[in-house]
Each structure stands twice: as structure tokens, then as C-alpha cells.
Amino acid sequence: MKEHYTLPQDRPIGPSLIIELSCRIMIPFIQLFALYVIAHGHYSPGGGFQGGVLLGAAYILMAIAFDQKTSMRFFPLRVNTALAGTGVLIYTGTGIACALLGGLFLDYSALAPLIPLGPVEWRSMGIFIVEVGVGLAVMSIMVSLFWDLASGGKLDRGL
Amino acid sequence: MSFLNLHMYTLAAPLVGAMLLFAVGRFGRRLVTPLVFAALSLSLAASVLVFLEVLTAGPFSYTVGNWEAPYGIELVVDHLGSLMNLLIASVALTACVSSLRRSSAELPERRHQFFTLYLILIAGLHGLALTGDAFNLYVLLEITSITTYGLIALGKGRAPLSSFNYIVMGSIGACFYLLGIGYLYILTGTLNMADLHRIIPLLDGRGAALATAFAFLMVGLWIKMAFFPLHVWLPNAYTDMPDGAAVLIAPLMTKVTVFLMIRVMFSIFSPVYEFIQHVAVQQIIVGVAAVGIVCASAMALGQKDLRRMLTYIIISEVGYMVGGLWLANAKGMTGAILHIVNDALMTLCLFLAAAAIAHRTGALGFERLGGLYRRMPLTMAAFTVGALSMIGVPPTCGFFSKWYLLLGGIEAGQWLYVGALLFSSLVNAVLFFRIIEIAYFRTPAEDGPVHEPGKGPRREAPQALLQPLVVTAAALIGVGLATGPLVERVIRFALPVGY
Amino acid sequence: MEAILSEIIAKYNYWIYVVLMMIGFYAMIGKSNLVKKLIGMNIFQTAIILMFISAGVKKGGGIPILDKQAVLERGVEAASIVNPLPHVLMLTAIVVSVSVTGVALAILQRIHGLYGSLEEDEILEKIDR
User: Which among A88, A93, A104 has CB closest to B64?
Assistant: First the structure.
């Protein structure tokens, strides 16, 4: 394939202390808030998708503020791929586990024999498990979408 | 494993397979073949059992997550749905044998990604066959479409552009469908198909809004299935995609969308709404279908590439099915539903043959096909069976569905449609006999990469490409001979109430 | 005239969605730049999302989160909360739209890599040659 992406060889603006420092401070809080949103999805506004997007945004911010390589060092490609698959597997696996334990697909109350919690609590817990899976998958997909598109599929420097 | 959830495994097996494949990634290339096989075999076994269950015990409905039906998502496993499920599973398993072999030649580096998409597509198709919820249908339709965009873009040459055009058209179609759902939701306050079916006749004085909703739903699905004036995206997209994907997508995508149209027409709306309250529309659609059949057949005549010719035949077959459904009599509908099954198998047979030929000749231009009967006799024999079925020669299955469609057309007095069917059969005969003539009488092209004198005259395609092809050709005749029981025991129950 | 105006103003949300949808549709069909087509597609999808969301709005309706104690005492007052279902549906539609946009952008990058252009007529010219 012919090379048509003329990415700037040396960035016109060098590393900016203000941007990098503020990102350093913000990223942990964004991630913390994302975890809060995922963890509260089953009984208040929030959920796996929203939290996953926030988690992904943290890594995307890292890739914009520093360099795509930096963000890929903190979140290796292999981990990303594995997490995306695992996220969906958690979701489908929960559904299949419910089915195998004698309930309907995704009927979380059927999981009650695993940990004695009672069907109503398990319904709440089941949504939480599924939300975690969704969050992982959405985070990985969002980040890898950005990486792929920003680097033209080569996963090198990025924007 | 309880029997209750059996149909969910048809959907879950390919999905889990896809995710395992994706997670294992490029480190487990050896795992691709066994994983794909295991997932699809499991799916086929489950769908056979579900099909038998429905035949003996009748249709049943299922609520995902045990939430009651109008609020939760309902799955409906009826005769038609389980038939489609079985069709999808068997076509997928047959096609994957060929895809596995062909993709290792076409896309050796990206096999696991290719098959991740492939399995998600199959899971989405199974979901479409089962769902009983109008919005769920939209989501699954988009899942199948997005994976199809990706699979098409993996092809060579112009494929990315074709895929992009398909994305634009497909998104318009999906958005129209979504708009239709929006109107229905505003009118009725529900998304469950059975609930919609119950509420829609009670909506008095909302005829305009309801008609808008119906029009949006229909046009959306017609774009997705490439019904005649809305077909422009299909030929390029289906010609350019990799062979491994074509053997799955070409037989299934358009047919499953026709099945979705049946769902919208008879499970959400009712025959009374379409055929009695709006007779003029019915007449127009049958007319458009007839024009579409004629135009697509005529355009197929102008093609000089086997795959491209087949894509135009697909468009004309869509015209058969849409026209047959809108004939508004039992024979026409029976023929259309039977033709969904038959056309999927015929298209599968022809595309498998095309993949096998492309594997040996490198391209599918007519000039490359010379002398194929001597070089690949088994492949070409199977191709001939598929061709005869497309033309409609008994005892292949294509004859029987076409017969039902013709009878339906005569009964409804739609002579334009009957004429179009006959014209299209004639054109198919011309098309395929032209290919058979080239492949039988002409000598192979000199410049072809095939002509390696040391290897002898006979070079059949590899076993992995040949076996599914032969199985499909046998199935064409088998299904043809089993038409009687199929209509009596399955399709009769799939017709809407009152037919 | 007044009747038409009041009709438009009474259902202005639907008129906005229709206008937005037509803009998107025009961009998808009329523009020859592929990125503009993609932008049109996004506008089109956003218009539909707006339509669904506005269908769920109620005058004076609050967020659909119920207080357990209040529900046990007084039951659910459906008029005081907006309909949450359209929001949930549109969350799914947004996911679909994100995926389609992602796939389309990736394909556009491949097209740009292959042909060095994103104008449809230029690409077709290069293919014909």
C-alpha cells in the first residue's frame, strides 16, 4: 500500500508541561469516576457502556497529550485484545451459566446456587457482572478504534 | 443441558467461538479450524434439535432473562423461525469448510480476524431468525451488516470502495427501519411483535402515521435485501469480497432479510392490513418485483464475469420472493418461503463452485473458464446441478418453488409477474448454457496461470473446496425431492392465519 | 397561515428532526466526497436519535429514578417521570452508530491509502484507468 499519510516527523509543538501535568493529574480521577459509573450502573444512572467509554477516554487522552506509544505502553495491545474478548465472554458466559444452571438465558436468579444470596440479590449482582463485562469490552474497543484510526492502522506514532 | 434453552445455544456457540478466537488472537493460529468447526457444529446440532422439537411440539416463545413478554425481550421459535435457523446453521457449516481452505490462500495473515467476523455474522443471523422484538431485530440487523461491511472490505482491488458504498446504503436502510420502529413505538407504546400485532388493528384514525411507519420499515428492509430499484450497492459489493466470505454472505444475507420482511408483514402487521386495506400498494409492489426480475436478468446477460453474473441473478431472485409474498395467496407465499430455502442452497452451490474455480484459475472472467469440464469434472458437475436448479429443471429444488410461484401468480391473475418469472428462467437458461458451452467446448486460455503442462489435464479443486460443493449439489436434489413433506409439515404452518 | 404556523410550532421537535434528516440525507446522496457522506450519515442517525428522545419527553417530567420508599408509599406516578425506554433504545442505536462510523473510517483510510483521494469521481477515474 502506498504511503499517503504524511504525519509530522517532528511535532510542531514540543511537549507542553501544562498539558502533560494536568493530564497526569486528571487521568487517575477519570478512571476512578469511570469505575464508579460502572459499579453503580445497576441501580443508578450509569452502566457498563458509559463507564467503559470514560475508561477508554482516559487512555485516549493519554494518547493525545503524550504520544500514542505512551498510551500503548500503559495498555499493551495484547491486553487490549484479550480484554475485548474477555468482556464479551463475561457477558455471554453469564448468560450461558444461567442457562446451564437450569434457568433461562440471562436469568440471573438461576445463579443463586453458586453463592447463597437469594434470587432478588442475584438479579442485581448479575446485572453488575454483565456491566463489568460490557465496560471492559467497550473500553478496549474504544481505545483500539482510536489507536487504529489515529495511526492509519499501523499502530505506531499516532496523531 | 436443559432442552429449554436449546435454541439459545445456536446463537451462543458461534458468538463464544468468535470471542475465543478473537482473544486467542494471532498466537493460536492452529486453533482457528477446530474452534470454527466446533462452534458451528454445536450450532447445527442445536438447531436440528430445535427444529425437530418445533415439528413435534409446536412453536414456543421464550423470554430472555425471564422478564415477562411485552416488557422483556421475547424470542419466538415458530416453524418459519426454526426452519430459517436450521437453514442458516447448515449453510454456515457447509460454507465454512470452503472458507477455511480458501481464506488460508486469500488472507493467510488475517485468518483469525476474518473468522471472528464470520462467526459473529452467523450469530447475528441466528438471532434474526429467532427474535420476536422489533427493536432487537434492528440491532441484530446492524450486527450482521457491520460484520458484512468488514468482510467485504477484506477483498482485493476495489473492495473498500464497494464496501463503503454498501455502508452508506445499508445505513440508510437501517435508519429507515429504525424510523419505522420509532413511529410504531410512538403509536403503540410497545416493541414486542406479538403486542404490536394485537394493538395495530385497534388504531383507528391513525392511518397516515401507520402507513408511514409501514413504508419506512419496508423501504429499509428492501434496501438491505437489494430489491430492484434499491439494488445498486449489491453487485459491486458481492463481486469484490473475498471468496471465503462470499460463500457465506451471498446465500444468506438477502434471504434472511426477505424472512425479516415476512416477520414485519405478518408478525407485526397483518395480511388484512397489506392485502385488503391497501390493494393498490400490493398491485404496485408485485409489478415492481416483476420489472425488477426482468431488469436484473437482462443486466445479468451483459456480464462477463461469473461472480458478477451471479450477483445479478441474486437480485432477480429477490424479486421472485418479494413478488411471491405480495401475491396475497397461499401458493405464492408457500413458493416464496420455499424459495428462501432453495435459493439459499442454490446460491451456496454456485458460489462454492465459483470459489473452487477461482482457486484453480485465479479469476472468474468467462475467458478463463474454457475447458473446465475436462480439468475439473466434479466441480463442473456440481455447478451444472446448481445451474439447472437456478433455471428450474426438475427434480432439482429450484423447479418446485418456481412452480408454486407460477401457480400463485396465475391464481392472483398477475400476468406481468408470471411473464417475468418465465422470462427470467429463460434468461437463466441462456446464461448458464453459455457458461457450460464455454467450459465444455472451448480450450483453456493460453495465458492463464493454470496451464501447467507438467501437472496433467485433470486438476480438481482441493478436497476442502470440493466436498461442501458436492454435498450442496446433492442437497439441491434432496430438498427438491423432499418438497412435499417440507411444504406439508413446515411451510403450511408458517403461512399467516387465514391462508 | 396561522394554523400552519401553530402546527409547526406545536410539534417543532419533529420538524427539527425532519430538517436534520434531510440535511444528512442530502449529504449522503448528493456529496461526492466520501468523508462528507460519512458526516451526512452521522447527522442522519443523530436526527433519528433526537426523534426518539423527544418522543419520550413529558412536560415537567423528571429523571426516571424511583425512590424505593416513595414508590412503596404512593406507587409510581408515571406522569412525573420521562419515559426511559427511548433513552435505552437510543443508547443501543448510538453504539451501533459508533461501530458503523468506526468501520467506515477504517475503510476510508484504506481507500485513501489505495487511491490517494477521497473524492468519489477521482477514485472512479483511477479505477477505470
Answer: A104
Non-local CB neighbours of B58 within 8 Å, separated by 6+ positions: none
Q: Are B124 and B84 in contact (CB under 8 A)?
A: no
pLDDT by residue (tens digit) across C34-58? Answer: 999 999 999 999 999 999 988 888 8
Beta bridge partners of B63: B74
Q: Using a CB–CB cutoff of 8 Å, tell me whether C23 touches chain B.
A: no
Shortest distance, CA B74 to any CA of chain A (angstroms): 11
Q: Residue C62: beta bridge partners? A: C81
- Output helix, strand, coil percentages for chain A, rounded to the nearest 5: 70, 0, 30
Pairwise CA distance, residues B422 & A71, whole Å: 63
> CA separation (Å) from B243 to B29, B98, B237, B307?
20, 9, 12, 10
Do C106 and A148 make contact, defined as CB atoms within 8 angstroms? yes
Q: Using CA atoms, how far apart are residues B285 and A90, in angstroms rounded to an integer?
A: 46
Span B362-383, pLDDT tens digits: 777 887 787 888 888 888 899 9
Backbone angles phi, psi at B140, to 5 degrees: -65, -35
ipTM of the complex: 0.93
Alpha-carbon gap, residue B324 to B304, rounded angstroms? 30
Q: Is the bond into B453 cis (omega within 30 degrees of 0)? A: no
- The reply to whether C95 touches chain A by the CB within 8 Å rule is yes
Contacts of B160 in chain C (CB under 8 A): 107, 110-111, 114
CA gap A98, A104 in Å, rounded: 6
In this structure, what are the phi and psi dihedrals at residue C55, rounded to the nearest 5 degrees?
-70, -20
Q: Which amino acid is at B225?
A: M
- Touching chains, C (3+ CB pairs < 8 A): A, B
Whether the model pTM is above 0.90: yes
Residues in chain B: 499
φ and ψ at B353, to 5 degrees?
Answer: -65, -40
Closest CA to B150 of B37, B22, B340: B22
